[in-house]
Specification:
212 residues; alpha+beta; 5-stranded mixed beta sheet; 3-stranded antiparallel beta sheet; 10 strands; globular
Length: 212
């Protein structure tokens, strides 16, 4: 009698949505293209739960050295159905704007700005949150979002904006938008993969404003 495939449990410590997954495809969606993804499979749910709650390096280390799980960078984006977001800022701080574009059709999906006294990182963060909110409203929980900003990805992941920009009368609207964005993240769940756009390999992200 053929032996049934044994179920494995996948722990994602660092990914789009850290957690424990019971199938590889779901795990892959949460680590594919995620910069610095850390994950591992286990034979039982009990082992996986213990590992997820513990120090990941206790499970990813060999011979006392940290084992780096490589991020596979493809020659072209793996998702053809996706949204791309980007921001532009004239000066630092300066007039900031951001937008979202459909990867396949290049149709502009949304555009905000310019807004006075902003930064590029803040624009990148707001663009991702804007895309997440629109996708949730449209009931598209699996639509990937491409961004070329590691900083914005970290702010989304940590639900915290670490900017050195000082609030003033000129940029008050931007800080109000940041507060609304963080409020949305704290009060909504999402599973849309947020994937790093590899500019050096794929060229400029389709949402780029073309001002370089």
């Amino acid at each position: 009698m053929a032996q049934k495939n044994k179920v494995k449990f996948y722990v994602v410590w660092r990914g789009v949505k850290p957690g424990i997954y019971e199938d590889w495809n779901t795990c892959k969606k949460n680590v594919d293209g995620f910069d610095g993804a850390r994950y591992k499979s286990f034979e039982s749910k009990a082992e996986a739960t213990l590992a997820f709650r513990g120090n990941m390096w206790d499970y990813l280390s060999t011979g006392g050295e940290k084992k780096v799980v490589p991020t596979i960078i493809l020659k072209k984006p793996s998702h053809t159905e996706a949204w791309c977001v980007d921001a532009a800022c004239s000066g630092n701080p300066g007039e900031m704007e951001y937008r979202g574009v459909d990867y396949r059709t290049r149709e502009q999906l949304f555009h905000v700005g310019p807004l006075a006294q902003g930064t590029n990182n803040i624009g990148e963060f707001l663009a991702i949150v804007h895309a997440l909110a629109l996708l949730k409203r449209a009931e598209l929980p699996n639509m990937p979002i491409y961004t070329d900003s590691k900083t914005a990805m970290a702010w989304i992941r940590n639900q915290n904006v670490k900017t050195q920009l000082v609030e003033n009368q000129q940029n008050k609207k931007i800080f109000d938008m940041i507060d609304k964005g963080l409020f949305w993240l704290h009060n909504n769940s999402f599973q849309n993969p947020i994937i790093k756009w590899e500019t050096d390999i794929w060229g400029e992200i389709p949402a780029d404003f073309g001002r370089k």
